[in-house]
Amino acid sequence: MTQLDGSYLFVGVGGMGMAPLAAWMAHAGYTIHGYDDQLREQTRRSLVESGVELCDFIFPMQLDHFQTVVYSSAIAPSHTILKAARERGLRTLRRGEMLAEIAQHKQLIAIVGSHGKTTTAGMVAHALRECGIESNYILGGYCNDPTLPPSRYTASEWLIAEVDESDGTIEHFTPKVTVVLNIDWDHADHYASEAELKAAFRGIVARTTGRVFVPAELRCRLEGSACAEIATLQAVDAYGVAAPPVGRFNAVNAAAALAVVDLLASVRMPPSVLSTFSGMARRQKFLHQDVQLSIVEDYAHHPTEIAALLRSLRERAPDHKLVVVFQPHRYSRTKQFKDAFATSLVAADQVFLLPVYAAHEPSMAGGDLVNLSMAFGPRPPEVLTMDRAGMYQLANRMDEVPTILAFVGAGDIDQLAAAFTEMTRTGFTASTAWLQFIHARISVDCRVREHEPLANKTTLRVGGAARYYVEPSNLSDLQALVRGAKLFGIKTFCLGRGSNLVVPDEGFDGLVIRFNSGIWRDSHALGEGRIWAAAGVRLKEICGFAAKAGLSGFEFLEGIPGSVGGALRMNAGAMGSWMFDVVERVQLLDSEGNLQDLPKEAFHFGYRKVEEISRGIALGAVLKSPEDAAATTIRERMDTYSVTRKASQPRDPSAGCIFKNPDGNYAGQLIDRHGIKGMRVGDAEVSTVHGNFIVNRGEATAKDIIELVRQVRTAVFKQSGYLLEPEVLLLGQDWDAVLGPIEEGVNHA
């Protein structure tokens, strides 16, 4: 094969079509880097093992290292990296275009169809291994058999690959052999009519230089489309192949797979080579089975697929009640097929609906959950939420009869299916179920502990333990944790250096996430006065890094005892400067767990609070120096700030400033003026150095701190009329609820 030049960046590398292609190219000797803001652990691990270099964070200025950007069709044209690549004149290819370019140097066997491609291609990969036949293949998903990879590179001239029609890239392929499984209208976002979709399939058949395999019912629709020989697939009795479970694969898929294997083997292979095929992930996969309840998940998202799935489940257990939870995939498909979906789903005894999974689409009139519900007539299905409440609602609707419960859809319904399965296995003990759920979705390097003491992780050195404590190793870990916590209704808190925080003595009944290692401690120069600093980087480290690089403007951070994530969340400041004075861009997870890359101008600031970050999690920032300066000058400024800080702030353990400055005054001055310095409760003391600090003189408890806060604000109010509000966070609790009013009729300033 002719090797293409240069390095490749795969944007959206975690996609089920992208990851196997990236892995195949890496094995073939290409230099492959990958980036995805929605990467799951199984895919991440597979890519790393294949030699793909993954980037948790990437910036436009780093694109000079690449010659070609390959992107998923789910990536919007406005995506920061894709837009920057085009502005720089880099070659950009959709996944299908990259695959077509590779296929030019191979004898391509293209597996096409509106559905069933992944299962059929998986069967082929399995049968090739069983028969010892060398061939390349690139699947569009993962096999249930962990020993069967989603792609394989060999020196063979043959390449078996799924060719996707959804984005029109099917037009770029000229196969040696084409296998057409079915032609059902879909992808209304790309094909305006059924005729256009059929034309795409007829086109690839016309371009096929060798043989075309089709089911008997399609032959008449494709004859005359090509000079290639059209052969009819001979249906295989799926039930006769060592009696596999009903519905694991159907006769057409099996026949198609065997036709490909026979072609490569030059001899007819027995159907038994498919008898040990364990199926593809999310394709009729049984998650749980006992005498009372079987739970299955399936990727079906087209009415034809759903109808076939429900028929197979009925045949599997005709005496069982059949319950379906369905998540529509994309607004355009829901609008197109809402009536057909309703017709297919009423074959179940009971149906529940989830909100539409948007993928990359904006909301569309006629394609939302209300429109789908109306298609069911006067008695629409119940709607579930994607959380613990939805799981309890579902469990409460289940009858005490043998049941098959099917979670159906191509979005993120698999997460709800897995969570409900764990809840079922643990008798709806949410804490145990969450731990089992999350352990299956995080890396081996992700540290998870229960009942972890927090006092030694804060600068005040007080407080109890966290119910769960986690140190994620990468972005995939973090997203799995955030989404898992949301699914199970677990409160989360991100802990940095532990400054500006009081942990209650009873601890925190939730999940504490700490950015303590790996990518979260990374900082490096981006050029042109820019620095990337991840959430766990200490502010003091940024000062040292900047000083060595001759970048000024960061000196004020030298004495702030925090890390980047916390400093971004509260726009930390000192010496008249603020964190966002040096921020150019911030990467964060929003409240839904989606990664956002936003410029400084997108944020709104309050007192010690940045609104957008307070609702999410800051992952790091691109910092920009306002000016260059000599290293000696920067060091002198840092030393000056350090001396000033040491002289004006206590050395004993503290959380930093306890109270917000009221309008027109300063909390420290009020406390000093009214003789409150030195006030003490237990080992908690108002600092004699700076009145707005409460210090731990050795054995203070959170109860002592809280009581001292109450006494200080009472004394200040009675003597000055100012009602001080705490600035530090009280983990898991609300200061107003804990402190209460000082007296009736007082308005908090």
What is the fourth-level CATH superfamily of the largest domain?
Mur-like, catalytic domain
CATH topology of the largest domain: UDP-N-acetylmuramoyl-L-alanine:D-glutamate ligase
Using DSSP, what is the number of strands?
39
Low-pLDDT stretches: 1-5, 237-249, 744-749
Largest sheet: 7 strands, mixed
What is the total number of structural domains?
Answer: 6
Radius of gyration: 30 Å
Helix content: 25-40%
Please, what is the average pLDDT? 85
Percent of residues in beta strands?
15-25%
In angstroms, what separates the terminal alpha carbons?
A: 73 Å
Give me the oligomer status.
single chain
Structural class: alpha/beta
Q: Please give the CATH architecture of the largest domain.
A: 3-Layer(aba) Sandwich
- The 3D shape can be described as globular
Number of helices: 22
CATH class of the largest domain: Alpha Beta
**Strand line-up across the major sheet:** 8-7-9-6-10-11-12
